[in-house]
């Protein structure tokens, strides 16, 4: 294969998507990606992308732009409502990504995202800023959640649950109908966002806040130079 043209680059991206989904992002060598793409030059990845992180970004970012556009449209509609239903907010997180279960490349993408989402810094770096739609979703969810739940950062638990379950679904044998799975996942995410804070959790939150306050009081402040 001609390793220098656009077709060679596209072949690397396609091979990387398949291998990353099946084996894990860090379990696949760049040489394996080059060989699977039919490149004679085993350094083809370095030639086209430079390093693994840039290759991962090339694999992930185009899909995230498409998903992001769909999610942003849903978030915009909900943000215009006085009190949007929490299940609709959960649906704005789940449905745009769940649509990718219908195609092989989409399922591969979901498996990769499920691995990346564990480390949000790596996920954000891999999407090249394309996923600010998650920031907007987070802002919408936060503004409609009970104040008592905000210190627990349950929006991140909801995001982790959403993409973890989508990745698991994408890795299972192909099913012809995902509607029940998607609806149930929306229910689960809604439950995370709406769950009450128990007395035990509230007491532990108060204890943590007291400890933080005491630590600040015990920390000497630097005096300004004369």
Automatic annotation (TrEMBL):
Positions of the HTH tetR-type domain: 6-67
UniProt-recorded Gene Ontology molecular function terms: DNA-binding transcription factor activity; transcription cis-regulatory region binding
PROSITE patterns: HTH_TETR_2
A Pfam family per the record: TetR_N
Region (Disordered): 205-226
Domain of life: Bacteria
Keyword DNA-binding: yes
Keywords: DNA-binding, Transcription, Transcription regulation
Gene3D superfamilies: Tetracycline Repressor, domain 2
Alphabetical list of InterPro entries matching this protein: Homeodomain-like_sf, HTH-type_TetR-like_transc_reg, HTH_TetR
PANTHER family listed in its UniProt record: HTH-TYPE TRANSCRIPTIONAL REGULATOR BETI (PTHR30055:SF234), HTH-TYPE TRANSCRIPTIONAL REGULATOR RUTR (PTHR30055)
Protein name: Putative TetR family transcriptional regulator
Lineage summary: Bacteria, Bacillati, Actinomycetota, Acidimicrobiia, Acidimicrobiales
